[in-house]
Amino acid sequence: MNQALSTHLVLIGLMGSGKTTIGRRVATETSRKFYDTDEMVEEDCGLKVRQIFSQWGEPEFRRLEHVALLTALAKKEPGVIAAAGGVVVSELNRQVLKSARDEGRVRIVWLKADTSVLLWRVQNGVHRPLLDGDPEVAMKAMHDQRSQWYESLASAVISTDKQSALQVVSAVVSVMNEGISHV
Ligand code: S3P
């Protein structure tokens, strides 16, 4: 079997990069199960991301997020996993993803976009309490801190700024099937 087909696909990138939308469509198109770490956390504790942040605090959210990531990666059948934007902040998560990538258990795609495009896409910040203050400042800070981690983890990078969702989906599927690394 083509090795690229026997591994999980993990989508990483900042808020608004399209991990959930694109991931869901890729999963449908490739007949895989779709996992979204935010949704898994919400289902697990019966609270919305925003409520978890306000009632339990960000560190507890990050703990739950770590568990969700491990749970998704442990699925036997290859799936499509949307890893929430902040997953890479944890060194442990980065190690887990890097080992899985190096062992060929996951293929990691960074959906990359300019912060101005991301800001435009995240106007509805329902599950994004970190953008409650000045979204521009927060997004820029996240970009500056996290880009190096997305870059170092990515098996492939897809620039989404100038592509439609349909084009990005097809680029991701190509990466999955053919193992190409830049689209
Ligand atoms: C976060 C990203 C959000 C959500 C939470 C924190 C982050 O997920 O987990 O608001 O730290 O980047 P998305 O990347 O799916 O928006």
Rounded mean pLDDT score: 93
Compute the separation of the termini in Å: 24 Å
Total strands: the figure is 5
Radius of gyration: 15 Å
Would you mind describing this structure in some detail?
This protein is α/β, with parallel strands linked by helices and 183 residues long. 53% of the residues lie in helices and 12% in strands. The protein contains eight helices and five strands. A five-stranded parallel sheet has the order 2-3-1-4-5, with helices on both faces. α2 packs across α4 and α6 crosses α7 (135-153). The longest helix has 19 residues, at 135-153. It is globular and about 40 Å long. The structure holds shikimate-3-phosphate.
Key phrases:
five-stranded parallel beta sheet, 5 strands, 183 residues, disordered N terminus, binds shikimate-3-phosphate, globular, alpha/beta, 8 helices, single chain
Briefly say what this structure is.
With 183 residues, the protein is α/β, with parallel strands linked by helices. It contains eight helices and five strands; from the N terminus they run E-H-E-H-H-H-E-H-E-H-H-E-H. The protein is globular, with a radius of gyration of 15 Å.
List the helices and strands and how they pair.
Layout: E1 8-12, H1 19-30, E2 34-36, H2 37-45, H3 49-56, H4 58-73, E3 80-82, H5 91-102, E4 106-112, H6 115-121, H7 135-153, E5 156-159, H8 165-178
Parallel strand pairs: 1-3, 1-4, 2-3, 4-5
Helix pairs in contact: 1-8, 2-4, 3-4, 6-7
Bound molecules: shikimate-3-phosphate.
Shikimate-3-phosphate binds at residues 15, 19-20, 38, 49, 84-86, 127-130.
